[in-house]
Amino acid sequence: MPPPADIVKVAIEWPGAFPKLMEIDQKKPLSAIIKEVCEGWSLGNHENFALQIADATNFYITEKNRNDIKNGSILRLTTSPYQTAVQLHERIQSSSMDAKLEALKDLANASRDITFAQEFINLDGISLLTQMVESGTDFGDLLSFTLTAFVELMDHGIVSWDTFSVAFIKKIASYVNKSAMDTAVLQRSLAILESMVLNSQDLYHKVAQEITIGQLIPHLQGTDQDIQTYTIAVINALFLKAPEEKRQTLLMTDCFSICLLLALSAFPKFLLFLSLVSLEIQFNEEMAHQLYVLQVLNFNLLEDRMMTKMDPQDQAQRDIIFELRRIAFDAECEPNNSGSIEKRKSMYTRDYKKLGFINHVNPAVDFTQIPPGMLALDNMLYFARHHQDAYVRIVLENSSREDKHECPFGRSSIELTKMLCEILKVGELPSENCHDFHPMFFTHDRSFEEFFCTCIQLLNKTWKEMRATSEDFNKVMQVVREQIMRALTLKPNSLDQFKSRLQNLSYTEILKIRQSERMNQEDFQSRPILELREKIQPEIMELIKQQRLNRLCEGTCFRKISSRRRQDKFWYCRLSPNHKVLHYGDLEESPQGEVPHDSLQDKLPVADIKAVITGKDCPHMKEKGALKQNKEVLELAFSVLYESDEYLNFIAPDKHEYCVWTDGLNALLGKEMTSEYTKSDMDTLLSMEMKLRLLDLENIQIPEAPPPIPKEPSNYDFVYDCN
């Protein structure tokens, strides 16, 4: 007969004694259980003791988490959180440097537990640590473990960041500003500054007074990728919290431009990895994420101009259009005061038509569409001033063509700017899990404008290759979009490399690629073929189902979303080989391979599963307001509803794993697999199977068994060594 559900069999350790095997009644108060354990070892004052999980975490057992104790768990009897906090509070003030160092090491380790953290903070422990930092008497390991303990305590969100003094901020900033600083101290200091800036607008202003982006540059030139990552995270935080007007100033300063250039030059191996995907495992995902965030914040500065309409009555804005005309037709222009007003109007209308504006009389009207608004005009002016020869050539070349074959520069520039904003997602907030950044945008302080200049020349070239007319405008834009997207997919490291990629993607090459893709995706529509497809489809669906279930049996490591990305916790889940039980459990770190079933303590019978819930309907998406707003996290979230209306909540590491797990769980429940990956796999496998069955194999007998492997030759004299 199975034991009652409330009884848990565990082992309990006590230093210097043999472990005890006990049955814990979860209905009993925790204090009663601790008292019983203490009496077994003849220990008095049971209120001064507590139970811990006997693993690397050493987390205390409380009334809130006691249900996490499973059969076979190993616990440890230890001093209570309060007693430990009192002891450490006293020990870290020791006059002996060695004793103080050991105490700070213990504090840094214990502070990861929120129960201990609460007791230590109640003793005004945070203030003590800040005073130790402000005194400036500790260095090296002493300072490193002091800052580590501080970061761990603050990560629990118990104490507000607004409570810290300017003296403390100055001291932390001084560690970052020093040219030679202990790596661990520097890393913790950068983490503290990032948290200060992100969690308090008031602290942002104080930190911004103490540290500039220019002072962060040297940390990007080192070889420690963790330091580089934390440095970029601080830059992103300063950039994100800066007032709008200061963001623009920050972007335009030489310091920020140099910072971006150095950020790129500091990672030659990292950039090589972007070209050679096989090297991906050697690099920190957090680094890629922080560079992606920096890229997004940089592009989002364009949003204001993108959403600003041109005022046709604003003379300063109209002067920009006059400047475009002057640069293009400088040799032909007459002085402004010559001729009649009507003659000048006629001349302007003619020139504006040559420039390719839709409204020849008042081209300012063309820029009232948002997006791209004034951003399009900014790009045109930049092109005219910084690439004058190319600008003049394009305008004059098209103005000399027949009307039906001219490529309208004005209209093309406006539509191209709008397209580039869509491709680069200007105005969208950074995603929590994205690592997709483009190195070439870090190689120039006006990268977007240079990107536009390259693409407008591509558009003109493609227009000529297509021999397009005004009726083909949308077709040309579609081809140009495809050319740009294919070139960006290759992750060029510089704008020059991007240009060379585009050279290999001419209109002729795009046609070849499209033709090849059409042949690979050939769709047979005849009735016999359709009947064959219908006959094969159930077999393919069963094959996909088995693949999904096999993947669930292998298992997946899932990430627990935490307030600090770099201190993520993990848990693992996998399906039993007989497809009847889900095994899951927490992990200290991301595993390198499969996790055995017996190391996963928790179980969920498949028979108890009622439904699979996805997206915003998941309970953990409703609980976490910040995650609720993150579209990408929402798309990766799913929950398993089982008996008593309880949930097992997941956030998949990527879209592929999300589809595998939702498909596999639905297959276990006998429901249809509806993910986009199922559709893609079905199309691919069905196409392959169809082509195999339609091969011309008349009068060819296909053997049922593979042919035998021939014997080894008697000698290898026929082998020729080319070396």
Stretches where pLDDT falls below 50 for ≥5 residues?
A: 254-283, 624-629
State the separation between the terminal residues, measured CA to CA: 73 Å
Number of helices in the DSSP assignment:
31
The overall number of domains is 4
Shape: globular
- Rg value: 33 Å
Main sheet: strands, sense, barrel = 4 strands, mixed
State the strand order across the main sheet.
2-1-4-3
Describe the structure.
This protein has 723 residues and is an alpha+beta fold. It folds into four domains: 7-79, Roll (Ubiquitin-like (UB roll)); 160-281, no CATH class; 307-517, no CATH class; 537-680, Pleckstrin-homology domain (PH domain)/Phosphotyrosine-binding domain (PTB) (PH-domain like), CATH 2.30.29. It is 54% helix and 9% strand. The chain contains 31 helices and eleven strands. The strands form three sheets. It has a four-stranded mixed sheet. The chain has a four-stranded antiparallel sheet with strand order 5-6-7-8. Helix 3 (97-110) packs parallel to helix 6 and helix 21 (409-423) runs parallel beside helix 23. The termini are far apart.
Main features:
723 residues, alpha+beta, Ubiquitin-like (UB roll), 4 domains, 4-stranded mixed beta sheet, 4-stranded antiparallel beta sheet, globular
